[in-house]
Design a protein that fits this description.
The structure holds 2 protein chains of 2 kinds. By secondary structure, chain A is an alpha/beta fold. Chain A contains 7 helices and 8 strands; from the N terminus they run ααβαβαβββαβαββα. The chains are: A alpha/beta, B mainly alpha.
Amino acid sequence: MAEHRAFQYNTFGRQSRAAEAVQITDRLLVIDDDVSICTLIAKLGEKAGFSPTTAVSLEEATRLLRAHRFDCITLDLNIGKNSGIQLLRVLADMACGTSIIIVSGSLPSMRDLAEAIGNMMRLQLEEPVPKPIDFAKLRAAFAGIKEKLVLQRNAKPAA
Amino acid sequence: MDVDASVFEDLAAEIGRDAAQQTFVIFIAETEIRLRRLRQLSCHDERAAIRQEAHALKGAAGNFGLPRVADLAKTLEQEATAITPHDYAVVIDGLEARYDAARQRLAELVA
């Protein structure tokens, strides 16, 4: 049901193609079990220059992560019956080096725990963004990651 | 306050009015689905689902500027493991009433 609704509402394909026309290639995966929050974060990400994809379940997120490369991930800590911490384990198993922003309405202690676990797993966790989402804080987080991606690209030796 | 319209205005300032309206349309549809689902859930054997739905409703309502809905959803999330069927029905009535009070303003924002 949730995945079906995500498909119905996912209009980003058209917008992403438009984004490609201006050479925006950095891909964002938004993981949240609430379609409206997914949309909200995806739109903010798109505005920041990412091409967003959304996942409303742990299974869908895992499938997407195994099939595609992403440059940034936002992760809720409550994904239906599952915990975002489970997904951190999946990412660690993949040796994922992608920047991850935890966007969660969980208690700060829960966000701190997730951050500690992610750091132990050597994941690239950014400063968490609490819900209700502070748009300016999330925008700043996206901008920081874009800057990092540019620096990484410029640091790569020419082929 | 039924709807904190400044949330919509802030979002519109970030991503543009059309995109903000599209996002709110999805929120409205999702919230109505979630309220119907909560109405159908039973305190007898679906308390975990009640807690999940209440948690999601709390988050979405908080993010989209419906503080009264978010507050009551938070209460339901916290009480989901012990709430009586009678109190559950009262809370669902309350959530629906609070959402109904916000609906007109939401419709104006996305019009």
